[in-house]
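Methods — Computational structure assignment.
A single polypeptide chain was analysed. Its primary sequence is given first, followed by the predicted tertiary structure written as structure tokens.
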Amino acid sequence: MVFPPFEPDRPGIRRRRFGAIPLRTLLPNLITLLALCAGLTAIRMSVEGRLELALAAIVFAAMLDGVDGRIARLLKGTSRFGAELDSLADFVNFGVAPALILYFWGLHELKSVGWISALIFAICAGLRLARFNVMIDDPNRPAWAGNFFTGMPAPAGAITVLLPIYLYFLGVDGGIFETWLVFIYTLAIAFFMVSRLPVFSGKKIGQRVPAEMVLPVFMVTIILLALLISYPWQFLSVGTLLYLGSLPFGWLSYRAYERKAAAEMAAASPAATPSMEASSPPVAGERPDLSASDRPSRLN
């Protein structure tokens, strides 16, 4: 007896064949998978106590996450599969991995309390990514809202929450007192990720570079990479503090956009919405009352 898996093809029945996938669609997904490998490697390095390599892997994953979406849009290789893969990779790289690094580094001294803070951070990162995926399809979202994230993005949250370890490598050590501060700081960053705080997205930066600014951009990029490689803990500490200091400016800029949009809507509403008296036709045989209080606004 021949079973279905080994049954030969019946004549007249054609099996469905999938078309070839272009390389421009595969390349962003390969970069995302490379970032996922870096995040998983960071978990392994933290378990082995090699924190320097673990932090380097997280930073490398964040850099790859910053370019995979841009490359996908540049090559017109965006896809639903890529978006879902990117979210899953971000949850591992910037939710699970930083939480485990913090726990193995110092939060384990608080035992169950430290583990709870690590769990909360990872869960908040997952909720943040899920909300981001839902808000992409919001048709009522204004165009200017694309300049902002709702809540701290997961990659920035991962780099920011590791600030206590940067300071530790710089020689700042406060013992058990510092551990409780790390616990509170971890919960604060987790709250920022799931909050409604508007944060600059930076997606519009780098889309068009003037010709005279190409060489300065190259030089600044090289200098920043050199500083990151030569003075990693100083660079990451200062960068994290500057990022935290920029959060209020993002909120102020968002409120300014809101006030401008409300003013434009209020200015356009009288012209777009005619009065009841102007829109309703007069009754036959009845003389309309054109008193000053009842006449249409266009006659005043």
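Note: The chain has ten helices and two strands.
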